[in-house]
C-alpha cells in the first residue's frame, strides 16, 4: 500500500471514529433526557399518590381537624397524619435527590419553601415536623436538607392555608 493510500485510510478511520463518538454522545444526551423525563414523571406520580390521600373524605376530615382543632385529634387520627406527613417527607427527600443530582433545575430552598406552605402551613404540621426531626436520629439523612426544610417551615405563615380557604369563599360571594 502506498503512503498516500495509507494516509487516506488513516484520515477515513479518524473520521469514522469521530463520527462514532458524535453518535455515542448524541445517544447519551438522548438517554439523559429520557431519564430526566422518567424521573420527573415518577416524582409527579408519587406526589399525586400523596395528594390522593388528602382527597378521601375521611382523611380530609382528619386533616381539617388537625388545622381547626388539633387538640381534639384521637390517637388513630394522629397515626393517619403521621403516615401522611412521613410520605410528604419521603417525597421531599426524593425531589432533593433529583435537585442535587442535576435532574431538576431548582434550588433546595425553592423546592422546600414552595412545599412547606402547602403541606406544613398549619400549627399541627409544623409541630409534627419539628418533633419528628428533634426525636429521630438524622444520621442517615442529609443534614443540609433537614436544615433547609426546617428553615422553610419556620417561615411559613401558619394561617396561610386557612386564609386561602376563606379568600376563596369570599371570592365566591
Description:
The structure is a single chain. With 173 residues, the chain is mainly alpha-helical. It has one domain. It has 7 helices and no strands. It has helices at 3-55, 57-68, 75-101, 108-120, 123-135, 143-154, 160-172. Helix 3 (75-101) runs antiparallel to helix 4, helix 4 packs across helix 6 and helix 5 packs antiparallel against helix 6.
Domain module count: 1
Please give the largest β-sheet: none
Cα separation of the termini: 92 Å
| Mean pLDDT reading | 79
Structural class: mainly alpha
**Low-confidence parts, pLDDT < 50 over ≥5 residues?**
none
Q: Please report the total strand number as a whole number.
A: 0
Task: Describe the global form.
Answer: elongated
Binned, the helix content reads over 70%
Rg, nearest Å:
25 Å
The helix/strand order is HHHHHHH
Our estimate of the beta-strand percent is under 5%
Tally of individual helices: 7
Write the layout of secondary structure elements.
Layout: H1 3-55, H2 57-68, H3 75-101, H4 108-120, H5 123-135, H6 143-154, H7 160-172
Helix pairs in contact: 1-3, 3-4, 4-6, 5-6
Q: In brief, what are we looking at here?
A:
The protein is an all-alpha fold and 173 residues long.
Amino acid at each position: 500500500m502506498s503512503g498516500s493510500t495509507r494516509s487516506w485510510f488513516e484520515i477515513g478511520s479518524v473520521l469514522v471514529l469521530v463520527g462514532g463518538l458524535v453518535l455515542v454522545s448524541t445517544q447519551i444526551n438522548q438517554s439523559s433526557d429520557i431519564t430526566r423525563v422518567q424521573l420527573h414523571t415518577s416524582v409527579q406520580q408519587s406526589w399525586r399518590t400523596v395528594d390522593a390521600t388528602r382527597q378521601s373524605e375521611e382523611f380530609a376530615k382528619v386533616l381539617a381537624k388537625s388545622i381547626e382543632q388539633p387538640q381534639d385529634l384521637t390517637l388513630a387520627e394522629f397515626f393517619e397524619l403521621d403516615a401522611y406527613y412521613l410520605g410528604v417527607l419521603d417525597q421531599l427527600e426524593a425531589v432533593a435527590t433529583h435537585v442535587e443530582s442535576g435532574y431538576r433545575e431548582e434550588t433546595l430552598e425553592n423546592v422546600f419553601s414552595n412545599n412547606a406552605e402547602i403541606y406544613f402551613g398549619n400549627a399541627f404540621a409544623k409541630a409534627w415536623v419539628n418533633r419528628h426531626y428533634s426525636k429521630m436520629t438524622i444520621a442517615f439523612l442529609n443534614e443540609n436538607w433537614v436544615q433547609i426544610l426546617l428553615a422553610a417551615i419556620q417561615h411559613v405563615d401558619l394561617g396561610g392555608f386557612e386564609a386561602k380557604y376563606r379568600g376563596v369563599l369570599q371570592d365566591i360571594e
